[in-house]
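Sequence and fold
=================
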Amino acid sequence: MPHMKVRDLLKGYGLVSITPDKTIKDAAKVMISKGIGFLVVVDSSDPGKLLGVLSERDVLRAVASNKENSKIEELMIKDVVTIKDTDVLYRAVKLMKERNIRHLVIVNEAGVPIGVLSIRDLTYEEGDLKALAEEIESEFSP
């Protein structure tokens, strides 16, 4: 059985991103309109340059602290965990578990962000998860 790749779970709508000069309120509007809880922050002059990420939890913390008009660059997480679209899915699961995170930014070979893999994506793909379990079992079998 071939190893499942991260790209196999890449969503068809592509990357949903925002620039650091926008406000937390702007980010909340994008999240609501797209039905997502995580945004990739990219450079306004170079959308292929990853600067950070902003999660729904970050937005909630900002709103609770009356910072909804703050710029994203002030509150975004800059230490971004990425994974290549060609990496095996097992590596994504392992990274999420090791780092205790729920999202990974998917990048192509050039390091350009092309999507996001969430823990929810993994839980919605039951058939893929069964295949992943078989793949992991085969790696650890004698």
Summary: The mean pLDDT is 88.
